[in-house]
Amino acid sequence: MSPSSHPNPAQPVAERKPALWVALHFPHLALEAFIPRWEWQQHDQGSVILQQQRVLAMSPAARTAGVRTGMRRGGVQMLLPDASFFPCDSRKQQDLLQAAALALLQYTPSVALHGAAGIVLEVSSSLRLFGGIRRLRQRIRMTVQALGLSVSLACAPFSKAAALLALYAAERARAACYCLSPRKLATVMDQLPVHTLSQAQAYLDLLEGLACHQLKDLQKLPRAGLQRRCGAALLQELDQAYGKETALHLWVVASETFHIKRELAGRLERSDQLLPYVQALLTQLCSWLRLQQLALSQLRLCLHHERGRSAIAPSQLNIMLAEPGWQEAHLQLLLRERLQQLGLSGPVIALELEATETASRQLHSEDLFPEPGGKPEDHQRLLSLLVARLGEHQVLQAAPQADFRPDIANQWVSVLHKKSAQAHVAASAAHALLRPVWLLAQPLALTLRQHQPWYAGSVLTIISPAERIEAGWWSDSTQVRDYFIASHARHQLYWIYRERNVTQTDGDAIALSWFLHGIFG
């Protein structure tokens, strides 16, 4: 599916009382739909959003140069010759707003879009889980900033009040505005300017002529006359701001699958430039995993290159995890390792991330006295990191087969493959036979001195009875051997064998051949 989330088609739901709402307003949404926050903050040379050839939004560098809303393109170029122009794209803004709403579903299931550049969350039932409103606000801010969004945040007992406070904070270039007490709400709301109400935009000249500048002034006007001149919608919004009337919301609902694509504003030619964009996609993915109570087994990252006549096939990264996981830091580390090893076939213009295989998330309780070696999840995360860094076929696990011949029984597969029950039985049998874990790829012929095998300048002393193997007669790889454990002068233990299928020629026995096949420890 293309969109990551969608409004619930069910009937709107009224907000509950008492409640605590967090509202987010994105003042630079039109700009950040093209250029993420981390880009224009670090490399801003002046970016301008145009609507019908007039300035709709601008970056701080463009504002500093004198660009103002409503200017024509020619006027901007006189002030800022190197300015970058982008057309206003409401679809991209809405997609980015939906992506932010999806990422915020990890904190509460009650998330709704508010207007063209806002989101409201009802968090009263989430405070204890996340350690209080202060820590929750910090986590919410970090989440949306990871998506490349600038945000002004507000808290209030009612959703409309929180949304107006967030808008007012953005206008004043403030990061946040709080009103957590219902008793103080009226005093705070009285100070807000009238233009913060969306329903008042068409009547600002009329209200200005009535010396109605703040909401407290609007409250003093006769309601009947105000309704005749400005409509009932304005009074309804005013009552919702003061909590006299409940607001209705269309909750955002996450999809059953995760498949998201993000277009880039420019062409990125280095893999390290992709990391912030990949992190933004992972933030949405991990939020979706937490919400669905799922763990990720495999994901696919697709890097799109040039299209059209000079089209280049997309580059794909398929990442398998040794154990299903959902931790954002771990997934980010895996993708960083793979991106650093990837040679780009061309500039990247879009990213696409898909959760190709998931599993039910297994929840584990914390131990009172944890093991000193760490949790099994930590071990699996280490294996996944080694696979991403070294390659799938360089990190192996034992997969012994039910066969007495060591060459056949001693098999190794990638840690990404699951062991079968037969492999566990064969492993138990191998431990009972006191065989080494590692075998040489090819047995090494040993020299004989005084009828005794030598290796690395010293005689090998046999310290175990023979393990006799006579197997493989049904195939071409028949083995008739006697295996021994031998000790070296340096106290290293080796696994050696001699062939038993010797014959006699003219009455003289052929000297027995000794071979080194494995090393203990």
Essential attributes:
521 residues, alpha+beta, six-stranded antiparallel beta sheet, 32% helix, disordered N terminus
Percent of residues in beta strands?
25-35%
Count of DSSP H/I helices:
17
Identify the overall geometry: elongated
Largest sheet: 6 strands, antiparallel
DSSP, total strands: 29
Q: Residue share in helices?
A: 25-40%
The class by helix and strand makeup works out as: alpha+beta
Instruction: Report the span from N to C terminus.
Output: 52 Å
Overall pLDDT: 82
> From the alpha-carbon coordinates, what is the Rg to the nearest angstrom?
34 Å
> Are there runs of 5+ residues with pLDDT below 50, and where?
1-11, 504-509
What oligomerization state is this entry in? Answer: single chain
Overview of the structural elements:
The protein is α+β, with helices and mostly antiparallel strands. It contains 17 helices and 29 strands. The strands form 9 sheets. Strands 19, 23, 24, 25, 26 and 29 form a 6-stranded antiparallel beta sheet that branches. Strand 9 (152-156), helix 7 (159-171) and strand 10 (176-178) form a beta-alpha-beta unit. It is elongated and about 115 Å long. It starts with a strand and ends with a strand.
In brief:
The protein has 521 residues and is of the alpha+beta class.
